[in-house]
Structure formats: C-alpha cells, structure tokens
Design brief:
The complex is a heterodimer of chains A (390) and B (333).
Chain A: E1 14-26, E2 41-53, E3 57-61, H1 68-75, E4 83-88, E5 91-92, H2 98-107, E6 108-111, H3 125-135, H4 143-156, H5 162-166, H6 175-187, E7 193-197, H7 205-222, E8 225-230, H8 233-239, E9 242-247, E10 250-256, H9 257-262, H10 267-275, H11 287-299, H12 325-329, E11 335-336, E12 344-345, H13 352-358, H14 375-381, H15 384-389
Parallel strand pairs in A: 3-8, 3-9, 6-7, 7-8
Antiparallel strand pairs in A: 1-2, 1-4, 4-5, 9-10, 10-12, 11-12
Chain B: E1 4-15, E2 22-33, E3 37-41, H1 48-55, E4 63-72, E5 80-81, H2 87-96, E6 98-101, H3 115-126, H4 132-145, H5 162-173, E7 180-184, H6 192-209, E8 212-217, H7 220-226, E9 229-234, E10 237-243, H8 244-249, H9 254-260, E11 321-322
Parallel strand pairs in B: 3-8, 3-9, 6-7, 7-8
Antiparallel strand pairs in B: 1-2, 1-4, 4-5, 9-10, 10-11
The chains are: A alpha/beta (390), B alpha/beta (333).
Chain lengths: 390, 333
C-alpha cells in the first residue's frame, strides 16, 4: 500500500504554521521615480499568522485582491516571502526549488481553481496521476503496484470504475470530474496539507457541494489539514472548522466558522455577510426586498484600497461606518471578542479603552447611530446589524 | 402593470445543421411582463445564454434559430415580430427597445477609447439628430444615473475598477431608455459587496424608469432575492416557472429543489447538503424522456421515456408551471 494513512500522529496537531507572513511585490520604477529612494511595492499580504491543524479545515475568506491566493502561493512556497516565517511541524522552512522544494511539496499540495486549465489537454488522466505518483515516490516497484495505486487514487475521489476514467482525456470529463482528478493528483503525493485555492468556484452550482463533501470526507479519512480559500462566506461556514477573514492583505477577523458567520465582529465581516445573497431576506414578492437591499448597499460604499499605498491605520477605515479617529492612525491589534474562545477581530471597536475615550462613530457623524453597539452589547446578544436582517 | 412586453413561443435554437446539430434551446415559451425582473437560472450548458442571444438575434454562427417566434409589444402600437425584422429594422430595434449587458461586461469596453467616446458613440449611432452638446449632457446624465461622477467621463476603462466598468455598461444599456434589458451574468465576475451595490442600484433604476429585466445567472439564491419571477432551465428546456417567493418556499421540480439545496445557508442550522448527484447532460446525447431523470431522486415510470411538457401543475398553484410527471396527471398528457 503506497498511500499510507498517517493516523499515528495526534489529532489537532499543528502541521503548518504561518507566522507574520508578508509578501510585497515590487513595482517597476517609473522615470520620474528614479531620483526617489523609496521603492514602491504592492503590499499583497501583511503580517498573516495562522495555523493549519491535522484533520481540520481552515477557510480564508476575502474579496478578490485581498491577498488570499497570495497566501496560498506563499504556503506552497511558489513565491519567496518578504518577511515572516513558515513552520512545518514547528521547523522553519524556506525552499527555493530543487530537492528541498520537492520534499516540501510532497507534504503540502496545492489544488487550483480552474480544472479546465490545470490539467494538460494532450495527456490522459493516467499520465497525470502516474506522474504525480512517480515524482513523489508512491508508484511502487512494479506495473501492478502502479495500477493498483492509480485505481486507488481514482476510487478515493469517487471516480469509479477507475478503468473508465484512466485513459480518458481531460476534455472528455465534466468540470466536477476534472476537479476530482486534480484532487487525486494532489493526493498522489500523499500530502499532509492540502491548499485548496477556490476549488469549486469554477464548477456548476449543482456539483460544488459534491466536491466539497469529497474534500471533507478525505480530510476525515486521511487526517489532512486543509486550507480552503474562498470568496463565499456561506460555503466557508458549511465546510470549514475555522474561518479567517482577510481584507486588503491583512487578517481582520478569525474564529470558528459558526461564530464568525453568526456573530461577525469586524465591520468588514458584517458588510460581507450582509452583502451575501440570502433568499430568507425576502419579505414580499421582491419589491420590498429590493429597497432594503439598496439601503444596505449604501452602507458599504467605496472600494478596496490601493495596495501600493494602503491607508494608514486600519485598512478598512475609509469604508468603515464606525471609524474613529484612532482607526486612521494606528493599526488595530487582535482583540478577543470573548463570546467564544478563539474569536478575535483586529478592530479598535473591541478595545474598551478606545471606545470610552473616543466613542464609536465620532469620526463619522452621519453614520447610523444605532448600528455600532458597544462591545459589551455585542457579547450579550450578537451583532445588531445581522440580527436586523433576519 | 401586467402587460406583456416580450413573448417567446416555441423557440428552438440549434448549433449546426442536419443530424449533427446540437439542440441548445428546445421549445421554450416565455413571457416577459412590463417592468418586471424575470430571472433565468440554470447550469452552464443549460441554454440560458443561447436563449438570450436567440431572442435578440445576436447568435453567432453556427447558431441557428430553427423555429419559434419572438414578439415584442411596444408601449403603443402593434406587436413586432423580432424574427421577421430586416437588418435595418433590427439595427433600430436593438438598443432602442432591447439592450443587453453581456457576461464579463467588464471586458466589453474598448480599452483604447475613453468612456465618454464609447457612451457618445452609442447615442450618436442611434440618435443622429441629437446635437453634440445634448449628447454630452445625456452621457453625463447616464453616468450620474449609475452612480459615477461625471468627471470620470474622460477615463479609460483600465482606470476604473471592475464594478465601475460594470456600471458604465449598465448606463450604456440604458442610454436609449429601452423597454427590455437583458443581463447575462452581469455580476458573476464581481465581489459580493459590489454585486449587492450594483443590484440595488439596478432595482432603483427599474423603479424609476420602468424597464423589464431578463436576468440570467447560475446563482439561484441571488435571483430569489432580486427577481419577481424565476424560470429554471435544464438541458435546453424550461422546467419550472414561478413567482420568486413561491419557488423558494415550495419548489415543484426536483431539479429546482436540488438547486435550492446546493447553496449553503448563512443562517439557521448547519445541515449536511448533498447537491445534485451526477453531472449536467450532454446536449449531443440527451437522455430520452425527461432530461433530468438520470439525476433525479424521484424518477418513476414515465420519466425515462416520455417527455413532460411545461404546464400548470396538477394541484392548484396559480401562476406556476412545471415540466415534471410528478405534478401532472397521466391522463392530461
């Protein structure tokens, strides 16, 4: 058996840990910048720290451009990081290719968004999977071993009978089947960590859940640690144990998925949840709901900031309805919300000292005064804004 | 406000001709009423975009409209048969009466021309009599309508964000105050926050200007919130049509039911969801009978060889229709 279940390690052991991970992409200098000393850079990811545990799914939620895919690529070591550290089983790793890179990807595998582009159209499924097995030394010694391993891989991703798919070309398969092949290819390395970068967003809605359920099933059977990157916070709630929300390259909130979606603390998370399509919100046959939708939309006006010169302080403050003077100057640290262990938000609203000194909304006098409840209130009865929408 | 503005009957669209033809849209009957938002949902390959291109006669070859009629009812005057329009009439009809916002509309703007040039071009092409200052004023007004300040007129598309480009496209679609706006996945490429802003604005504009919207998307949960009526397409046919709230509360067709259960909810208990087993049908080799029966959890005897027709369900549901043997008495076929 080439694909061993690594069940001997303790459950919830930390497999991969990101500590203050930062990535800045340099911007080409223009002629008029030649004399200046500062080098411009896109601050794609700043100070991102989290852990991936064995047998757990961690979701990373954010808009496009929030840096979530860059995090996946940093974790896969496809980009060298600017600062911070990446610990695999507690040991710092930095690989730039060659043998070390291969040894690393054997344990940390990446699944990409588009299964139409991530499989080579001129090769069969057998070729794709054999390559993965061979490179990572899981192909066995004989041809029978290989055949057995191939059949095993396809069975794991529920492509049965395997013979029907082995000699097919990618164009003969549907999107969902292709994504299953991509997952099987990642499993061919017998990894400990799967980094799934929007694994279902290119698939048809009716088959998305099938692929998510498959990933969950694999996580349970193989004790994988999964990083699930998505823009759809509802699917994060469905699929992930923990959820981290990113905005403009920084983490703004984290905690277990249920708490983050039920009691979102950070104003950005609230905006995200209010904006998600929610059929339960309809009251009449459409027109009444539309008016409410328009009012909601006004609250989150504006767009994500430029990452070349991100706003000072909290990066969300230009759009935040509860921004205080302090938000524009100082970067908020993580504050524990206190409703559930492990739920935190990087927001000054949860720093009691700040709230009493400045009062929420004092920088934005036209903001709805009923919306920013003091932290104490939030702890008791959940957030006001999401409660209203129900 | 229940006047019909667009009436589609028995529309069939093929790709290719002869035996090899792929029947992308099959016997579609659909009515769009004045001022309503009609949602059209379905998976990729269900024929929803083909239907939109068919009714505007924008189908690129090898697409052919094999049969069927599309009748447009102007506010005053006689109905127009869109299929019989001459190219010159069709040019006048397009944009002035129906406009279309394409999938990935963000990329439909010409990157080498300013926004103003492109907006003015539309107005100039359709209303050549308008004076230049009047055209400019109209273009400014359009941008204001969609919430973009007029000083962005001279920007190039790459200087605007995706959401703003999409707004420009919507503004352009409204340039000649059409009666029908067809939107083909207008917000798929946008983030949820931007999506809500744009849809809210669209709803507001519709209240004010009273155009009807045919809204095509694969995101059923969005439609339930945003549209008045919803039609579900599967394998080139419309399988269910109902007012949005009713469809959400009690879906009749098992496919609709499956689709509704494919979206994880943000509230309520966290349930295990299954999606729909199997994969969408191959249009070149459609299963006999009901196209959905190989994936249907409730398939029974007539499903695999007899095609259910879209009609009123057997039990009383006014204003709804469904194509499923579960809801049709066998005598009525």
């Amino acid at each position: 058996m080439t694909l061993s279940d690594s069940a001997d390690a303790p459950v919830n052991e930390v497999v991969l840990e990101a500590v203050g991970l930062t990535k800045h992409f340099p911007v080409r200098k223009r002629l008029r910048d030649l004399l200046t000393r500062t080098t411009a850079a896109v601050h794609a990811v700043d100070d991102v720290s989290f852990v991936l545990r064995r047998g757990q799914v961690t979701a990373l939620v954010g808009e496009s451009g929030s840096g979530k895919s860059t995090v996946a690529r940093l974790l896969a070591q496809l980009h060298p990081r600017t600062a911070g550290d990446l610990l695999l089983h507690g040991r710092s790793t930095r690989v730039r290719g060659g043998r070390a890179f291969r040894a690393y990807v054997r344990r940390v595998q990446l699944i990409l968004q588009d299964p139409f582009a991530s499989l080579n159209p001129v090769h069969t499924i057998r070729y794709h999977l054999t390559r993965s097995l061979r490179i990572h030394g899981n192909a066995g010694r004989s041809a029978e071993d290989l055949d057995k391993a191939l059949a095993d891989l396809l069975t794991r991703v529920s492509l049965t009978p395997p013979e029907r798919y082995l000699d097919a070309f990618p164009h003969e398969l549907s999107g969902g089947q292709r994504q299953r092949v991509a997952i099987a290819r990642a499993l061919g390395a017998d990894p400990e960590v799967l980094l799934a970068d929007e694994p279902v967003s290119m698939l048809d809605v009716s088959i998305r859940l099938g692929v998510l359920n498959l990933l969950r099933d694999l996580k349970e059977r193989l004790d994988l640690a999964i990083l699930y990157i998505t823009h759809d916070i509802a699917s994060a709630r469905y699929f992930a144990d923990d959820t981290i929300v990113m905005y403009a390259g920084r983490m703004v909130e984290g905690g277990d998925s249920e708490t983050v979606t039920k009691n979102p603390a950070h104003p950005y998370t609230r905006l995200l949840i209010e904006s998600a399509p929610d059929p339960d919100r309809i009251t009449g046959a459409g027109d009444a709901a539309d008016v409410g939708g328009a009012a909601d939309a006004d609250r989150g006006h504006g767009e994500p900031p430029s990452l070349i010169s991100p706003p000072s302080g909290c990066r969300f403050h230009p759009r935040c309805p509860h921004a205080m003077p302090r938000c524009t100057v100082e970067l908020p640290p993580r504050h524990d919300i206190g409703d559930r262990p492990g739920h935190w938000a990087a927001c000054w609203l949860y720093d009691p000292a700040t709230v009493t000194a400045e009062g929420p909304g004092s920088a934005a006098p036209d903001a709805d005064p009923s919306v920013p409840p003091p932290p104490a209130l939030i702890r008791q009865d959940g957030t006001a804004s999401v409660g209203d929408a129900r | 406000m229940t006047q019909t503005v667009l009436e589609i009957t028995g529309l069939n669209v093929d790709y290719g001709v002869g035996d090899q033809a792929v029947r992308a849209v099959r016997d579609v009957d659909l009515t769009l009423r004045r001022g309503e938002v009609l949602g059209l949902a379905g998976e990729s390959g269900s024929g929803k975009s083909t239907l939109a291109y068919g009714i505007t006669r924008l189908l690129p070859p090898p697409g052919v409209i094999r049969s069927g009629s599309v009748r447009y009812h102007p506010v005053d005057g006689d109905p127009v048969d869109v299929m019989a329009l001459t190219p010159a009439e069709l040019r006048r009809f397009r944009w002035a009466e129906t406009s279309i916002v394409f999938q990935g509309a963000m990329n439909s703007l010409n990157p080498v021309h300013r926004i103003s040039t492109q907006l003015l071009d539309v107005i100039k092409a359709h209303e050549p009599d308008m004076s230049a200052p009047a055209r400019l004023a109209r273009a400014r007004e359009l941008l204001k309508l969609v919430g973009i300040s007029a000083d962005r007129m001279d920007s190039y598309p790459h200087q605007l964000s995706g959401g703003m480009r999409q707004r420009v496209m919507i503004g352009m679609a409204l340039a000649l105050e059409p009666q029908i706006v067809i939107m083909d996945e207008p917000t798929t490429a946008l983030d949820v926050v931007m999506q809500r802003q744009i849809l809210g604005q669209l709803a507001e504009l519709r209240e004010r200007l009273g155009f009807a919207v045919l809204f095509i998307t694969h995101d059923l949960s969005l439609l339930v919130e945003f549209s008045d009526r919803i039609a579900i397409m599967y394998g080139g046919r419309i399988v269910e049509e109902a007012p949005a709230a009713q469809l959400y509360r009690a879906a009749l067709h098992p496919y609709t039911e499956g689709l509704l259960h494919s979206f994880p909810a943000l509230r309520g208990p966290r349930r295990a969801l299954t999606g729909i087993p199997g994969s969408p049908p191959d249009l070149r080799a459609m299963p006999p009978g009901c196209a959905f029966h190989p994936r249907c959890p409730r398939a029974f005897t007539p499903c695999d060889n007899e095609l259910p027709v879209l009609g009123a369900p057997a039990d009383d549901h006014p204003g709804r229709s469904v194509a499923c043997w579960l809801h049709r008495s066998l005598e009525s076929r």
